[in-house]
Specification:
The complex is a heterodimer. In chain A, about 0% of the residues lie in helices and about 60% in strands. Chain A is mainly beta. In chain A, strands 2, 4, 5, 6, 9, 10 and 11 form a seven-stranded mixed β-sheet that branches. Chain A has a four-stranded antiparallel β-sheet with strand order 1-3-8-7, with no helix packed on it. By secondary structure, chain B is mainly beta. In chain B, about 0% of the residues lie in helices and about 60% in strands. The chains are: A mainly beta, B mainly beta. Chains A and B meet through strand 5, strand 9 and strand 10 of A and strand 4, strand 5 and strand 9 of B.
């Protein structure tokens, strides 16, 4: 079975802190994605990566950056956390255009 | 820009009923369509994937159909159970070099009561 893991289930950070969210997949998938999910807004794509060191902006990249140094690992970085980045963050991976598999999510609260 | 709509937003049914969840999308140039289930506070679990060339997929009590030309998909759940209570999300992948990016609907919250 495909397994996508995220480093934390719950995270509380202060405004202005630099935050790292880590995602690891074990199925050698080329594509990896970061989404955020908010009530009333649904799931929105922040960034995605289609290969090591390759990345593209999604629909809401402002305030975020990403890093993919190894194929299995995709990190989401909040350079200076703000309260409007309080959200559920979901990582996913897929092989090309095929089925996407999601991690358990990280609920981030910025105070 | 692709838009995905799910109807109804919420559904409450007694145990044992057969039910249908609806999903529509504005741009028919999709590569595939995926149905997910999400339990409160959890990640998404993939239920079914339908390629654009397919008309339906089945897994156990679940059957998903796709009518690409009309921009519609349905998820049929047979003999519903309380354990089916969750939010069901539909998502589409665009055609071309979209690298599998998904556009999601807002979801249908399903409650199955004993």
């Amino acid at each position: 079975d495909v397994k996508v893991t995220q480093s934390s289930r719950y995270l509380v950070k202060r405004t202005g802190e630099k935050v790292f969210l880590e995602c690891v997949q074990d199925m050698d998938h080329e594509n990896m994605f970061w989404y955020r999910q908010d009530p009333g807004l649904g799931l929105r794509l922040i960034y995605f990566s289609y290969d090591v060191k390759m990345k593209e902006k999604g629909d809401i990249p402002e305030g975020y950056s990403v890093s993919r140094e190894k194929k299995e690992r995709f990190s989401l970085i909040l350079e200076s956390a703000s309260t409007n980045q309080t959200s559920m963050y979901l990582c996913a991976s897929s092989l090309y255009n095929y089925e996407q598999y999601f991690g358990p999510g990280t609920r981030l609260t910025v105070t | 820009k692709q838009e995905v709509t799910q109807i109804p937003a919420a559904l409450s049914v007694p145990e044992g009923e057969n039910l249908v969840l609806n999903c529509s999308f504005t741009d028919s140039a999709i590569y595939n369509l995926q149905w997910f289930r999400q339990d409160p506070g959890k990640g998404l679990t993939s239920l079914l994937l339908i390629q654009s060339s397919q008309r339906e997929q089945t897994s156990g009590r679940l059957n998903a159909s796709l009518d690409k030309s009309s921009g519609r998909s349905t998820l049929y759940i047979a003999a519903s159970q309380p354990g089916d209570s969750a939010t069901y999300l539909c998502a589409v992948t665009g055609g071309g070099t979209s690298y599998g990016k998904l556009t999601f609907g807002q979801g249908t919250i399903l409650t199955v009561h004993p």
